[in-house]
Amino acid sequence: MADTAPIAAAPLTTADGRPLAEALVAAQARSRRRAFLLVVPLLLFMILSFILPIGQMLHRSIYHDGFSSNAPGVSAWFAANPQGTEPDEAAFAALVEDLRTMQANRTAGEAGTRINYVLPESRSLFTKAAREAKDLQPPYREALLALDPKWGDPVLWEAMRASASPYTFDFYIVATDFERAGDGSIVRVTENRQIYVYLFIKTFLLSGLITLICLVIGFPVAHLLATLPMAKANLLMILVLLPFWTSLLVRTTSWMALLQGEGVINDLLVWIGAISQEGRLRMINNQTGTIIVMTHILLPFMILPLYSVMRVIPPSYARAARSLGATSWTTFRRIYLPQTLPGIGAGALLVFILAVGYYITPALVGGADGQLISNLIDFHMDKSNWSLAAALSAMLLVGVLVLYWLYDRLIGIDNLKLG
Amino acid sequence: MAVTAVTDAFVEFDRVQKSYDGETLVVKDLNLTIAKGEFLTMLGSSGSGKTTCLMMLAGFETATSGDIRLAGRPINQVPPHKRGIGMVFQNYALFPHMTVGENLSFPLEVRGLARAEREVKIARALDMVQMGAFISRRPSQLSGGQQQRIALARALVFDPALVLMDEPLGALDKQLREHMQFEIKHLHESLGITVVYVTHDQGEALTMSDRIAVFNDGRIQQLAPPSDLYERPGNSFVASFIGENNRLQGTIKELSGDKALVRLSTGELIDATAVNVKEKGARTLVSIRPERVEFKPEMMPPGAHTLDAEVVEVIYMGDILRTVLKVAGSDDFVMKMRNTLGQTRLAPGQKIKVGWHPQDARALDP
User: Fold this and answer.
1) What is the C-alpha to C-alpha distance for residues A45 and A207, in angstroms, rounded to an integer?
2) Same domain, B176 and B317
3) Distance (Å, whole) CA B337 – CA A164
4) Fewest Cβ atoms closer than 10 Å to its Cβ: which of A26, A158, A283, A342?
């Protein structure tokens, strides 16, 4: 037997001499293929409905060929001359030539819209000039300036230079309340035009507040659900899930009936004398309305993960802590609460992410000051400014991903328990 | 079993009753006195009320009526965290988010002990269960037996005078369980603490306890040291619950003091010790332990009644030969023979005579 003993370093083989690793792969290949085929439908669905649209959105946020494809002449001039070059007669000639093509192809509006995104009130400049373009005589610089002195504005030319390439960060510049100055530098817009950053901050703060309220309200409910006898817990669970089963519009409308100036709650408060007839509270069509209604709608997303965690915490832990001399508050703080952390994390992350992107509720009950960033995204989509909407959405996505990453660093994503 | 003046009474249950639903009593009129330093086991099947009693003592359940006193002080209104009772739970209940050291530190922190003092006590408690090397492990990284030791150390670390144990060894395998039984017993002896131990395992109860309270139907059926409980069961429930026993139906023919002559239902006469039969003519159940049954005439006391028996089956079990006999109409009468050198080997169908010392045949309630 001694001479047939295997050499320690030799790779293991199967009884018929094939390498063991290879044989293992071959043996598992069939089941792997079957497993893959099972997930193919879901994979396709995910790619079609999730990955492709997000990719397209991200692409749109940095791509717009409205100007570059319709103004090839002036785009070529920008490519040939470095930034800061004063536009010469050749530039104006190329521009007039492009305007004539636009007039022929009826694309002046498209090109003007692209410039309009970064420099408001520019669209009419293009449509008007395109209409007149065929009658213009050289020198074109003077001819265009005669048509409208704005054609000499360096800010306009800088905007055109930026639009000459279909790939641009202009939409992100706009979405962060910046603009291009005449010399090509990027500066903050004047204070009265700064809206996006403010709305982003407000959206994140309001979402944080809503998450906190959901946690404060949801925690005791989840605890009750986890500790009540089965029959009562089921009834309570139905009450918790009820918002899921009602149409969002119905829920929102009933909140309107409850919260409005002449609504049930105000009537009740006036009737018991807590407030005067004139002092009726404004609880809807403002920020308060957004907070109240969104808290109600998102509450189940907090309660369910919490419940699933609390249900499996044996009551013996609390008993052990009590028998070891801890008061009920210490028991809660040091024994119960830390064990519910995975549920708190999951619920808070879920509620926060949903709240950050929530659109319909702020639109319906938010009034003027209860609007969130998603309402602005919708506004730009209505105005067909897809690229700016995409840029805002991408920033929202990044914000959420950053929070997710932070959560992973602080608490650990494997500590998340969604159900 | 009324409360008599036990001078060193440490724990007292005084006419305690407990009902969960207001309709049935789970614990019926419990009177029990536990001395300081005693190891008392509450033994019973599930639903017998033993765990409820423990929970009332720990403070997690309140007595519906009656008093529970700890060191002379009524504790019905004292919340669990002020009772200062250590407790070991069935599933250990080690806090999963804390290390072993933090688990042990917890009862000391809530008592406001300084860090240095805590460390000394933790080290001492861990050494007590030979787990000093595991101080920074998490409970999930420990085996069942190790978790059990930590749970024990945690219940002892704050020097409670009374420790309650609720089926603490139930989840361990047989070998480890037997080992831990001795360790707990030794800890009890060396620390001088009072232990109230709940189990449904009679072997465990017999091995560890100073006294055993057998629970059934919300009442203590018998409260006695292990040997008394096994050898002198007070009623037929205890006789059948603890250990194996042969039961023969009959009526009392003669009764003088604790000596009874019983006529079995098949007509034979046997001698027995009267335990809780009151009068002549009463129906009785005679209980005999299988290891006290003899078949060699020289081993039986002179004049003992013998019964005809037929061997049905001999089961070889290594240390003993378990012999099933047909005796007095019953065909599952068991006799345990020690597997000694030269032991008579019986064969099925063999006719023999069996007998026993009248002290070992106990005439109980039917």
Assistant:
1) 30
2) no
3) 106
4) A26
Instruction: Name the residue facing A325 among B90, B95, B107 (closest C-beta).
Output: B107
* Nearest residue of A to residue B156, measured between CA atoms: A324
Mutating which of A312, A313, A317, A324 best tests the B interface, going by the most B Cβ atoms within 10 A?
Answer: A324
Q: How far apart are CA A333 and CA A313, in angstroms?
A: 15
User: Given phi > 0 = left and psi -120 to 50 = alpha, else beta, which region is A202?
Assistant: alpha
Q: Name the pairing type of β-strands B27-35 and B246-256.
A: unpaired
- B-chain residues within 8 Å CB-CB of A339? 95-97
- pLDDT for the residue B4: 42
Interface check for B84 against chain A (CB to CB < 8 A): the answer is yes
Pairwise CA distance, residues B130 & B242, whole Å: 33
Contact B106 A314 (CB under 8 A): no
Nearest CB to A324 within list B59, B110, B164: B110
- Is B58 in the A-facing interface, judged by CB distances under 8 Å? yes
Chain A: nearest CA to B302, how far in angstroms? 58
**Hey, are the CB atoms on A322 and B60 less than 8 Å from each other?**
yes
Residue B260: Cβ within 10 Å count: 26
Q: Which residues in chain A are contacts of B81 at CB distance < 8 A?
A: 322-328
Please provide residue B224's backbone torsions phi and psi, each rounded to the nearest 5 degrees.
-160, 160
Does the interface predicted TM-score (ipTM) exceed 0.85?
no
| Domains of chain A with bracketed CATH | 30-60 (no CATH), 72-193 (no CATH), 196-415 (1.10.3720.10)
Q: Where residue B284 sits, what CATH number does that domain have?
A: 2.40.50.100
Which residue of B79, B91, B155 is in closest CB contact with A314? B91
What is the Cα–Cα distance from A359 to A389, expressed in whole angstroms?
13
pLDDT in the model for residue B231: 87
| CA-derived radius of gyration, chain A | 31
Q: Which of B75, B106, B109, B157 to mutate to test the interface with A (most CBs of A within 10 A)?
A: B106
User: Each residue of A339-374: pLDDT tens digit?
Assistant: 998 899 889 998 999 999 888 888 888 888 888 889
Distance of CA A235 to CAs A218, A242, B292, Å? 16, 11, 60
Q: Which residues of A touch B (CB under 8 A)?
A: 314, 316-317, 319-328, 330, 334-335, 338-339
Alpha-carbon gap: B211 to the closest alpha carbon of chain A (Å): 24
Q: Going residue by residue through chain B (366 aa), what tens digit of pLDDT does each one get?
A: 333 444 568 999 999 999 988 888 999 989 999 999 999 999 998 888 899 999 999 999 999 999 999 988 899 899 999 999 999 998 889 999 999 999 999 999 999 999 999 999 999 999 988 888 999 999 999 998 899 999 999 999 999 989 999 999 888 888 888 888 998 999 999 999 999 999 998 889 999 999 999 999 889 999 999 998 988 888 888 988 888 888 888 888 888 878 888 888 888 888 888 888 878 888 888 889 998 888 887 777 776 778 889 999 999 988 888 999 998 888 889 999 888 888 888 889 888 888 888 888 888 887
Check: CB of residue B135 under 8 Å from CB of residue A351: no
| Domain identity same for B147 and B77 | yes
Given a cut of 90, whether residue A404 has pLDDT beyond it is no
Residues B172 and B254 in one domain: no
The answer to whether A280 touches A270, Cβ cutoff 8 Å, is yes
Interface contact flag, B80 A314, Cβ < 8 Å: no
Question: Best mutation site among B97, B121, B152, B167 for testing chain A: the one with the most A CBs within 10 Å?
Answer: B97
Chain-chain contact of A325 with B96 (C-beta, under 8 angstroms)? no
B95, A319: Cβ pair inside 8 Å? no
One domain for residues B13 and B36: yes
Which among B186, B216, B236 is the end of a domain?
B236
Range of the domain at B174: 9-236
